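A quick aside before the break. I want you to see a complete sequence-to-structure record at least once, exactly as it would be stored in a machine-readable document. Don't worry about memorizing anything.
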Amino acid sequence: MKYRTLGRTGIKVSPYCLGAMMFGAMGNPDHDESARIIHKALDEGINFVDTADAYSRGESEEIVGKALKGRRDQVVLATKAHLPMGDDPNMRGNSRRWLVRALEDSLRRLGTDHVDLFQVHRPDPDTDVEETLSALTDLVRAGKVRHVGASTFPASDIVEAQWVSERRGLERFRTEQPPYSILDRGIEREVLPVCERYGMGALVWSPLAGGLLTGRYRKGRTADTHRATYGFKHMSDERRLDAVEELITLAQDAKMSLTHMATAFAIAHPGVTSAIIGPRTMAHLDDLLAGAETALDDEILDRIDAIVPPGTDVGRLDMAYDPPAIGQGRLRRRLPDERTAS
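That is the input. The structure line, written in C-alpha cells, reads:
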C-alpha cells in the first residue's frame, strides 16, 4: 500500500482509513467479529483508524481499544468529541470543560495513554474557537494528544481557526474531516483548497454517499439493507438515484464495481489524504480491499464530471452539517415589523 503524508505532520497514513462507526450497537454488535475486521484491515496495510466517543455511546472506542492491544504502536489512532454523551447539557460541545473530560473518557475506553489525532466532531457556535484551541493545546502539551483536527467545518471556520492559532500561539488544526463522494462534491469549491493552502490533511467520510454508491439502491427498487432501516431521506432522493443509474452504467463500461469506482474517486483528488471506509461486516471489508488498487484515468474522471459537475452536490446527504445561518430560521428572516422597505 502506498502511504501518504497526513498534511504537514510527517505522519504516514494509508489512503484508506478504517472508520469504526459501524462497530457496536449502531452497526455490528459482535465485538469479536468487529475485532477481526480491524485485524484484517491492519494485516492488509491500513494503518489509520478513526473512531469517536459518540459512536454507540463509547462502545466503538471500547472495541477498537481491545482490538489494538499489542498493536497500538503500529496504528495512527484518531477519535473525536463534540456530540452529546449524556443528558447533561455540558456533556457535549467544544468547551474546555467538556473536551478535557471527553478525551480522558476516550483514552480509558481505548486503553491507551494518547491518541495521534483528536478532532472536534462539529463546529460549536456557542464556544469561542480560541477557547477550544487553547484546551486542545494544553492536551497536546500534556502528551495526551499528538495532533488536533476538525470535522465538517465550513471553509470560513477553518480559516478563522488558523488565524486564531497563529495570532495566539496555539496548536492549529492539522486535519479536516468533511463528507465527500461523487454525489457530494461541494467541498471541492472551498474546503479542499483551503486545506491545501494551510497544509491540512483531509480525511473524507462517506465516500459511498451514505450507501447509495454501493449499487444496492436503484431507482424504482427497494433495498432491505441495514442503512435503509434508519430512514435516511438521501436514500430515496430522485436526483441522487438518477445520478446513481448513470454512474452504474459508467462503472460497467469501465469494467469495475460502482463501490470501487466511488472509493477510488474519493482518493483521486490531490487535496484528499485518506478516505474513511466504514465496513460493518467482513464481507464489506473484503469488497473494499479488493478495490484498493483501483485507479481512475482521466476519461473516467471526465465522464464522472459530466454526470456530477465539480464542486456540486446532488441533493443532500442527511448527515451534512448546516451552520446556524442556514439551520436557524431566526438568522435568515427579519422580524415581521422589519420586513417592509418603509
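Two observations worth writing down. The chain has a mean pLDDT of 94. Residues 179 and 231 are 19 Å apart (CA to CA). We'll return to this after the break.
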